[in-house]
Design brief:
8 strands, alpha+beta, Tetrahydropterin Synthase, Chain A, Band_7/SPFH_dom_sf, transmembrane, three-stranded antiparallel β-sheet, about 270 residues, Band 7 domain-containing protein, Band-7_stomatin-like, Band_7
Protein backbone atom coordinates (compact mmCIF):
# COMPACT_ATOMS: atom_id res chain seq x y z
CA UNK A 1 0.00 0.00 0.00
CA UNK A 2 1.55 3.31 -1.12
CA UNK A 3 1.70 6.58 0.78
CA UNK A 4 -1.64 8.38 0.88
CA UNK A 5 -3.64 5.22 0.09
CA UNK A 6 -6.21 3.61 2.33
CA UNK A 7 -7.80 0.16 2.42
CA UNK A 8 -11.17 0.47 0.70
CA UNK A 9 -12.11 -3.17 0.21
CA UNK A 10 -14.57 -3.10 3.14
CA UNK A 11 -13.76 -6.68 4.25
CA UNK A 12 -14.95 -6.83 7.89
CA UNK A 13 -14.44 -10.55 8.54
CA UNK A 14 -16.62 -13.14 10.26
CA UNK A 15 -17.06 -11.16 13.49
CA UNK A 16 -18.06 -8.13 11.47
CA UNK A 17 -20.84 -10.01 9.75
CA UNK A 18 -22.08 -11.27 13.11
CA UNK A 19 -22.24 -7.68 14.39
CA UNK A 20 -24.04 -6.65 11.21
CA UNK A 21 -26.64 -9.35 11.87
CA UNK A 22 -27.15 -8.03 15.39
CA UNK A 23 -27.51 -4.55 13.99
CA UNK A 24 -30.16 -5.85 11.61
CA UNK A 25 -32.03 -7.33 14.60
CA UNK A 26 -31.97 -3.91 16.31
CA UNK A 27 -33.33 -2.21 13.20
CA UNK A 28 -36.19 -4.71 12.99
CA UNK A 29 -37.02 -4.49 16.70
CA UNK A 30 -37.15 -0.69 16.82
CA UNK A 31 -38.70 -0.21 13.37
CA UNK A 32 -39.73 2.41 12.21
CA UNK A 33 -37.89 4.59 14.77
CA UNK A 34 -34.58 3.01 13.84
CA UNK A 35 -34.88 4.53 10.34
CA UNK A 36 -34.33 8.01 11.82
CA UNK A 37 -30.86 6.87 12.83
CA UNK A 38 -30.06 4.55 9.96
CA UNK A 39 -31.01 6.81 7.00
CA UNK A 40 -28.73 9.76 6.22
CA UNK A 41 -28.96 12.48 3.55
CA UNK A 42 -25.95 13.88 1.69
CA UNK A 43 -26.30 17.16 -0.22
CA UNK A 44 -25.19 17.77 -3.82
CA UNK A 45 -22.02 19.61 -2.72
CA UNK A 46 -21.10 16.99 -0.09
CA UNK A 47 -19.67 13.51 -0.07
CA UNK A 48 -19.93 10.87 2.65
CA UNK A 49 -17.04 8.73 3.88
CA UNK A 50 -18.53 5.65 5.59
CA UNK A 51 -16.53 3.61 8.11
CA UNK A 52 -17.72 0.12 8.99
CA UNK A 53 -15.94 -1.18 12.07
CA UNK A 54 -13.09 1.21 11.37
CA UNK A 55 -12.71 0.35 7.67
CA UNK A 56 -13.68 2.60 4.77
CA UNK A 57 -16.58 1.10 2.83
CA UNK A 58 -16.00 1.63 -0.89
CA UNK A 59 -15.36 5.16 -2.12
CA UNK A 60 -16.91 8.48 -1.23
CA UNK A 61 -20.71 8.34 -1.37
CA UNK A 62 -23.14 10.96 -2.49
CA UNK A 63 -25.24 12.80 -3.08
CA UNK A 64 -28.54 11.22 -1.99
CA UNK A 65 -29.91 8.86 0.70
CA UNK A 66 -27.76 6.28 2.49
CA UNK A 67 -28.53 3.51 4.93
CA UNK A 68 -26.15 3.04 7.87
CA UNK A 69 -26.14 0.01 10.09
CA UNK A 70 -26.59 1.16 13.69
CA UNK A 71 -23.62 0.71 16.03
CA UNK A 72 -21.23 -0.52 13.34
CA UNK A 73 -21.34 2.23 10.68
CA UNK A 74 -20.02 5.75 11.07
CA UNK A 75 -20.28 8.51 8.47
CA UNK A 76 -18.29 11.72 8.00
CA UNK A 77 -19.52 14.39 5.59
CA UNK A 78 -16.98 16.29 3.52
CA UNK A 79 -17.77 19.65 1.88
CA UNK A 80 -16.42 19.87 -1.68
CA UNK A 81 -17.09 23.58 -2.22
CA UNK A 82 -14.29 26.10 -2.64
CA UNK A 83 -13.58 27.81 0.67
CA UNK A 84 -11.62 30.98 1.37
CA UNK A 85 -9.31 31.73 4.27
CA UNK A 86 -8.04 35.18 5.24
CA UNK A 87 -4.45 34.79 6.37
CA UNK A 88 -3.99 37.14 9.37
CA UNK A 89 -1.44 39.96 8.92
CA UNK A 90 2.05 38.56 9.29
CA UNK A 91 4.98 40.63 10.54
CA UNK A 92 7.69 39.70 8.05
CA UNK A 93 11.35 40.74 7.85
CA UNK A 94 12.28 41.06 4.19
CA UNK A 95 15.65 40.24 2.68
CA UNK A 96 16.78 43.88 2.95
CA UNK A 97 15.86 44.03 6.67
CA UNK A 98 12.56 45.91 6.36
CA UNK A 99 9.63 44.86 8.56
CA UNK A 100 6.31 44.78 6.71
CA UNK A 101 2.85 43.50 7.61
CA UNK A 102 1.33 41.35 4.86
CA UNK A 103 -2.00 39.56 4.70
CA UNK A 104 -3.38 37.27 2.01
CA UNK A 105 -6.40 35.19 1.06
CA UNK A 106 -6.27 31.51 0.07
CA UNK A 107 -8.93 29.65 -1.93
CA UNK A 108 -8.93 25.86 -1.55
CA UNK A 109 -11.18 22.81 -1.86
CA UNK A 110 -11.15 19.07 -1.21
CA UNK A 111 -10.74 16.87 -4.31
CA UNK A 112 -10.44 13.49 -2.51
CA UNK A 113 -12.77 13.12 0.51
CA UNK A 114 -11.21 9.86 1.73
CA UNK A 115 -7.66 11.23 1.74
CA UNK A 116 -8.82 14.38 3.53
CA UNK A 117 -10.38 12.25 6.30
CA UNK A 118 -7.84 9.44 6.60
CA UNK A 119 -4.51 11.20 5.95
CA UNK A 120 -4.85 14.28 8.15
CA UNK A 121 -6.72 15.11 11.33
CA UNK A 122 -8.19 18.41 10.12
CA UNK A 123 -7.48 19.18 6.47
CA UNK A 124 -8.89 22.71 6.56
CA UNK A 125 -7.07 23.76 9.73
CA UNK A 126 -3.81 22.22 8.53
CA UNK A 127 -4.04 24.08 5.22
CA UNK A 128 -4.67 27.36 7.02
CA UNK A 129 -1.63 26.95 9.26
CA UNK A 130 0.51 25.95 6.30
CA UNK A 131 -0.65 29.05 4.38
CA UNK A 132 0.49 31.35 7.21
CA UNK A 133 3.88 29.65 7.42
CA UNK A 134 4.37 29.65 3.65
CA UNK A 135 3.57 33.37 3.46
CA UNK A 136 6.33 34.18 5.95
CA UNK A 137 8.84 31.84 4.31
CA UNK A 138 8.29 33.13 0.77
CA UNK A 139 8.27 36.84 1.61
CA UNK A 140 11.33 36.44 3.83
CA UNK A 141 13.39 35.73 0.70
CA UNK A 142 12.16 38.85 -1.15
CA UNK A 143 13.33 42.45 -1.02
CA UNK A 144 10.85 45.18 -0.14
CA UNK A 145 10.72 46.44 -3.73
CA UNK A 146 9.91 42.91 -4.96
CA UNK A 147 7.12 42.54 -2.40
CA UNK A 148 5.54 45.78 -3.63
CA UNK A 149 5.96 45.22 -7.37
CA UNK A 150 5.80 41.42 -7.86
CA UNK A 151 2.63 40.43 -6.03
CA UNK A 152 1.38 38.24 -8.86
CA UNK A 153 4.55 36.15 -9.09
CA UNK A 154 4.67 35.81 -5.29
CA UNK A 155 1.05 34.64 -5.25
CA UNK A 156 1.78 32.04 -7.95
CA UNK A 157 4.83 30.80 -6.05
CA UNK A 158 2.80 30.43 -2.85
CA UNK A 159 -0.02 28.67 -4.70
CA UNK A 160 2.43 26.13 -6.16
CA UNK A 161 4.09 25.42 -2.79
CA UNK A 162 0.76 25.00 -1.00
CA UNK A 163 -0.73 22.84 -3.76
CA UNK A 164 2.21 20.42 -3.68
CA UNK A 165 2.25 20.27 0.13
CA UNK A 166 -1.50 19.68 0.55
CA UNK A 167 -1.88 17.13 -2.26
CA UNK A 168 -1.43 14.12 0.13
CA UNK A 169 -4.28 15.56 2.21
CA UNK A 170 -6.71 15.49 -0.71
CA UNK A 171 -6.69 19.30 -0.78
CA UNK A 172 -6.40 21.49 -3.88
CA UNK A 173 -5.26 25.12 -3.50
CA UNK A 174 -7.03 27.01 -6.28
CA UNK A 175 -5.67 30.53 -5.82
CA UNK A 176 -3.59 32.74 -3.51
CA UNK A 177 -3.84 36.54 -3.48
CA UNK A 178 -1.75 39.10 -1.58
CA UNK A 179 -4.32 41.51 -0.14
CA UNK A 180 -2.31 44.29 1.48
CA UNK A 181 1.28 45.26 2.28
CA UNK A 182 1.60 47.75 5.14
CA UNK A 183 4.90 49.59 5.58
CA UNK A 184 6.17 51.35 8.73
CA UNK A 185 5.16 55.03 9.05
CA UNK A 186 8.77 56.24 8.90
CA UNK A 187 9.38 54.29 5.70
CA UNK A 188 6.17 55.63 4.14
CA UNK A 189 7.29 59.20 4.85
CA UNK A 190 10.75 58.55 3.41
CA UNK A 191 9.27 57.02 0.25
CA UNK A 192 6.83 59.92 -0.11
CA UNK A 193 9.68 62.45 0.23
CA UNK A 194 11.73 60.55 -2.35
CA UNK A 195 8.80 60.47 -4.78
CA UNK A 196 8.16 64.21 -4.27
CA UNK A 197 11.82 65.01 -4.95
CA UNK A 198 11.75 62.90 -8.11
CA UNK A 199 8.61 64.72 -9.32
CA UNK A 200 10.18 68.13 -8.65
CA UNK A 201 13.33 67.11 -10.55
CA UNK A 202 11.26 66.00 -13.54
CA UNK A 203 9.28 69.27 -13.44
CA UNK A 204 12.48 71.31 -13.48
CA UNK A 205 13.83 69.34 -16.42
CA UNK A 206 10.59 69.87 -18.36
CA UNK A 207 10.62 73.61 -17.54
CA UNK A 208 14.24 73.94 -18.66
CA UNK A 209 13.49 72.15 -21.91
CA UNK A 210 10.55 74.50 -22.48
CA UNK A 211 12.70 77.59 -21.85
CA UNK A 212 15.29 76.26 -24.28
CA UNK A 213 12.72 75.70 -27.02
CA UNK A 214 11.15 79.13 -26.36
CA UNK A 215 14.56 80.83 -26.59
CA UNK A 216 15.27 79.15 -29.90
CA UNK A 217 11.87 80.21 -31.24
CA UNK A 218 12.43 83.83 -30.12
CA UNK A 219 15.85 83.88 -31.74
CA UNK A 220 14.41 82.60 -35.02
CA UNK A 221 11.61 85.21 -34.84
CA UNK A 222 14.13 88.00 -34.15
CA UNK A 223 16.20 86.91 -37.16
CA UNK A 224 13.13 87.01 -39.41
CA UNK A 225 12.11 90.48 -38.17
CA UNK A 226 15.65 91.81 -38.59
CA UNK A 227 15.63 90.77 -42.24
CA UNK A 228 12.37 92.69 -42.96
CA UNK A 229 11.73 96.18 -41.43
CA UNK A 230 8.09 95.97 -42.50
CA UNK A 231 7.65 92.93 -40.28
CA UNK A 232 8.82 94.98 -37.28
CA UNK A 233 6.30 97.71 -38.14
CA UNK A 234 3.50 95.12 -38.30
CA UNK A 235 4.60 93.87 -34.91
CA UNK A 236 4.32 97.42 -33.56
CA UNK A 237 0.76 97.69 -34.90
CA UNK A 238 -0.19 94.33 -33.38
CA UNK A 239 1.15 95.44 -30.01
CA UNK A 240 -0.84 98.70 -30.26
CA UNK A 241 -4.00 96.70 -30.98
CA UNK A 242 -3.43 94.53 -27.91
CA UNK A 243 -2.90 97.55 -25.67
CA UNK A 244 -6.07 99.28 -26.87
CA UNK A 245 -8.13 96.15 -26.19
CA UNK A 246 -7.22 96.35 -22.49
CA UNK A 247 -8.88 99.83 -22.10
CA UNK A 248 -5.78 101.57 -20.79
CA UNK A 249 -5.95 105.35 -20.16
CA UNK A 250 -2.41 106.01 -21.46
CA UNK A 251 -1.18 104.69 -24.79
CA UNK A 252 2.35 105.17 -26.10
CA UNK A 253 2.58 105.29 -29.91
CA UNK A 254 5.79 103.72 -31.18
CA UNK A 255 7.46 105.66 -34.02
CA UNK A 256 7.91 103.94 -37.34
CA UNK A 257 11.21 102.20 -37.58
CA UNK A 258 12.15 103.96 -40.84
CA UNK A 259 11.74 107.39 -39.15
CA UNK A 260 14.04 106.31 -36.34
CA UNK A 261 16.58 105.13 -38.87
CA UNK A 262 16.60 108.51 -40.71
CA UNK A 263 16.97 110.44 -37.43
CA UNK A 264 19.86 108.27 -36.36
CA UNK A 265 21.60 108.86 -39.73
CA UNK A 266 21.26 112.67 -39.33
Amino acid sequence: MGQGEVDRDGDIGCCGYCLMFLSFILVVIFFPFSLCIAIKVVQEYERAVIFRLGRVVGGAKGPGLFFLWPCIDEMQKVDLRVLSYDVPPQEILTRDSVTVAVDAVVYYRIFDPIMSVCNVNDAFRSTQLLASTTLRNVLGTKAMSEVLSERESISQEMQHILDVSTDPWGMKVERVEIKDVRLPIQLQRAMAAEAEAAREARAKVVAAEGEQKASRALKEAADVIAESPAALQLRYLQTLNSISAEKNSTIIFPLPINMLSSIMKK
